Each structure stands twice: as structure tokens, then as C-alpha cells.
Amino acid sequence: MNKRTIQDADLQGKRALTRVDFNVPLNDRQEVTDDTRIVSSLPTIRTLLEKGASVILMSHLGRPKGKARPEMSLKPVAEKLTSLLGREVTFAPDCVGDEVQALATRMQPGDVMLLENLRFHAEEEANDEHFAKQLATLGDVYVNDAFGTAHRAHASTEGVTRYLSPCLAGLLMEKEIDYLGRAVGDPEHPYVAILGGAKISGKIDVISNLLDRVDTLLIGGGMMFTFLKAQGMEIGKSLLEEDKVDMARQLLRSAEARNKQLLLPVDTVVGRSFENDTAFHIVSVNEIPADMMGLDIGPETIARFRTHITGAKTVVWNGPMGVFEMPNFAKGTIAVAEAMAEATAHGCITVVGGGDSAAAINQIGLDDKVTHVSTGGGASLELLEGKTLPGLAALTDKA
Ligand code: AMP
Q1: Choosing from 249, 378, 386, 387, which is the catalytic residue?
Q2: What pLDDT was estimated at residue 114?
Q3: Any domain includes 327
Q4: Domains in the chain: how many in total?
Q5: Which domain holds residue 379?
Q6: Shortest-distance atom of ligand 1 to CA 296
Q7: Quick one: pLDDT at residue 32?
Q8: In this structure, is residue 392 part of a structural domain?
Q9: Could you say which of 149, 175, 201 is where a domain stops?
């Protein structure tokens, strides 16, 4: 990564204004129900403190749409962070304004403060210049550890970087870019990508960009049926994006022209309706009954995908192979996760894109058996599309 990180900066006595991703789920009682994202930010916070800095944390939570909504306050996160960090975290009642400014001015090395939800102000997502300047006055240096929002040019991820120097990558950001960036830019071959999930739309650019880089692209999930339709097959009541059939046909042709393997499932698990308890059986993809829908990849497909995954040197996976939320249709997704774990044990670099595939591998319990599970769904997809992330581009380059 060609960006400066907190590891190579002198931070003694500095106030580090740090963008983190504390967009965590809260229950009705305003309790944090999953603290993964808070835990993921601890190494960066601890490193900043060890380097003699004080830390001012800022984040969004939910979609308050520019209004202060008490149920989306970050206060419960400050309490959770206090117990995880083992030191008092001050909670600021807003993210800009005189009171927050006064609190920031009084910060001493070792102090930690969390600002209230950035998105209580519409100016955050609008990347408003005045708002970005106000945020910038709170710190001496800027740190971005929120990979999950790095694909958005918001005031706290992009605007603020124009008024502070240096702008440094946190440890989580560094790790994300190291693994995802290497998979995108300098992968060891054979390089296999696995794409799944519900829809092709939103992933067309990813497929297209990956076809330039990978040796083999494995397709599963709901999107496989639009490809099968493009090959002239009958897909029954399976998920279909009618308006993407032509695009799927073009992608198949483009793979052929580029001499890349784009592999579609050869069998599927079909069910009568979209529920776990529906009657189901395995069929070849050219025998999908008219009144049934494909809800998972079948065993023959699993075996073929497994061979490709375990024989690879780099594997990137985004999107479940079937409706993994329903146990009867989770086998394909579990098998891909297991094959990735096996490949990792043989020295393959394995990266799981964020979102549903990250949720799936966590649920299966194999998240610590792969090289890296990304914390950013949208951001990791944009990297795989070959796009530049504004929040990353804005950080200070290495000399
Ligand atoms: P995405 O957000 O596009 O990655 O899609 C993830 C969702 O795709 C998950 O909730 C899966 O249940 C769903 N999915 C995967 N395979 C299928 C399928 N064959 N039919 C319908 N939905 C599917």
C-alpha cells in the first residue's frame, strides 16, 4: 500500500481525529448486539494511545437522514468501548459545535472521546466543506480506519482530509488494502473468484473486471439462473433478472474471447417454494421443473468448485451460493467456506468480501481459517470492480 499509516508517524502529543466504522446493530433497549466492528477498531485505538496521542473517534450509525434521532445515538457504543478498552471513553453530545470543540481542546495524551453520530448532520453525506472544516478543527492529524465507508466521499472520509495533515491509514484499513489490494492488483496464480448472491445487477462491473484478472470465475447463488437462461435453459420459478439476460450472454462471450473459464453450476437444489421446509431435490440444471425454483448449488457443482478452490493460489469470494439463511439450502455456501479453509491451510491467500459472504463464513465458524474476511461489503466490491476508493485515495502518500 502506498499510503502512510499510523505505524510510521510520530503522534506524540497529537490529537488523532479518527474515522471508524461503529455502525453496529442496537436492540430496542439501545444495547449493542454485535460488537465485532468495535473490537476490530481496538488495535488502531491502542496503537494511537501507545504512541502518545489522544484519540477523537467519529462514526455514523444507521440512516438518520440528517436529523438527530436518539435511537441512533452512539452513546451505547461509547459505553461498550469503555469496557472493551478498559479506560473511560468520553461521549461528546454532538460531532461539531462549541461544546465539542471545548472538549477536544482539553484532550490529553491517553484520552479517548467518541463524537455523536456524524449523520445527524446532512452535511456529512453531502461532503459539505464548512462541516468538514469544523470536524478538522478537532484534531491535529487524521486517521481513517473505516474501510466499510471508504468508497463514499463524505465529509468525514474525504472532505476532512483537505484540512489536516498527515492523513493516515489505521491498522484495519491497512490490512484490508493489503489483502484485497493484492488480490486485485498482484495476485498469485491460479487466481479463482467465486461470485454468488441474489442478483447480477450491481455485480456486472465486478464480473467484467474480474474476467480480466482471474483464471477461473465460479458463479453460484441466485445470479446463476440469469446466466443459465442466457444459455437457453429453462429455469422454472428460479430468480431471474429478465433485463440482464443479454448482459449475461455478453459476459459469457467475453469470457470465451478472453480465454477465461466462467463456470456455471451443473446441478441445483430445487424447492417448491421459498421456505426452508418446502419439498426439495437435486436436479441437473437442464432439468429444472417448471413449477420449482433453484435455491442452492448441487453436489456435483460443489465437487467441481472445490477442485478449483483447493487448487488455487489466490481465491476471492463474494456472495452466498444459495439461500444460506435456510439450513436446507446452505450446503453449497458451507462447502465453499470449507474449501476456502482447506486452500488456506495449503498456503493459498483467501479473501472473503464483506456483506452476506462475511456473515455466512462467520455463521459457519470458519472466519479464522481464511486469510482475510473484509469488513466492507460495498467497499470491497468497488475495489474488485477496479475502482479507486475516495476515502483511501485522500490519504497521504508514502514519501
Ligand atoms: P447479495 O446481497 O446480492 O449478495 O445476495 C445475498 C442473498 O442472496 C442472500 O440473502 C441469499 O439468500 C440470496 N440467494 C442466494 N442464492 C439464491 C437463490 N438461488 N435464490 C434466491 N436467493 C438467493
Answers
A1: 378
A2: 98
A3: yes
A4: 2
A5: 187-384
A6: 19
A7: 94
A8: no
A9: 175
- State which of 204, 225, 352, 356 you would mutate to test the pocket of ligand 1, scoring each by most atoms of that ligand within 8 A of its C-beta: 356
Instruction: Name the residue among 150, 160, 167 with its Cα closest to residue 396.
Output: 167
Domain boundary among 175, 205, 233: 175
CA distance 205 to 376: 17
Residues 221 and 280 placed together within one structural domain of the fold: yes
- Indicate whether residue 221 lines ligand 1 (CB < 6 A): yes
18 and 147 co-located in one domain: yes
Q: Is 325 in the pocket of ligand 1 (CB under 6 A)?
A: yes
Which residues have a Cβ under 8 Å from the Cβ of 365 and sit 6 or more positions away?
none
**Mean pLDDT for each 10-residue chunk of the chain (399 residues)?**
93 98 93 91 98 98 96 97 97 98 97 98 98 98 96 97 98 92 88 94 90 95 97 97 96 94 98 97 98 98 98 96 96 97 96 87 93 88 89 95
- Any catalytic annotation for residue 202? no
Q: Is residue 195 located within the same domain as residue 222?
A: yes
Specify whether 271 is located in the same domain as 208.
yes
Distances (CA, A) of 188 to 5, 213, 373: 25, 11, 18
19 with 56, same domain: the answer is yes
Burial of residue 318, with CB atoms counted within 10 A of its CB: 0-12 exposed, 13-18 middle, 19 or more buried: buried
> Distance from the CA of 89 to the center of ligand 1, in angstroms?
39
Residue 355 is among the residues annotated as catalytic for this protein: yes
- Asked if residue 297 has its Cβ within 6 Å of ligand 1, the reply is no
What does the pLDDT read at residue 386?
A: 85
Q: What's residue 335's pLDDT? A: 97
The Cβ of residue 256 has, within 10 Å, a number of other Cβ atoms equal to 11
- Give the SS3 label for residue 281: strand
Position 355 scores a pLDDT of 79
Predicted local confidence at residue 142, as pLDDT: 98
- Going from the Cα of 72 to the center of ligand 1, the distance in angstroms, rounded, reads 28
* Any domain includes 1: no
Are both 316 and 203 inside the same structural domain? yes
Q: What CATH code is carried by the domain that includes residue 225?
A: 3.40.50.1260
**Residue 144 · residue 135 · CB < 8 Å:** no
Are residue 169 and residue 244 in the same domain, yes or no?
no
- Kindly state whether residue 180 falls inside one of the protein's structural domains: no
Return the ligand 1 atom nearest residue 220 CA: 16
Which of 399, 225, 228, 242 has the alpha carbon at shortest distance from 295? 225
Q: Are residues 74 and 131 in the same domain?
A: yes
Which of 228, 239, 272 gets mutated to test ligand 1 (max ligand atoms within 8 A of its CB)? 239
- Pocket lining: 139 vs ligand 1, CB cutoff 6 Å: no
Cβ of residue 295 lying under 6 Å from some atom of ligand 1? yes
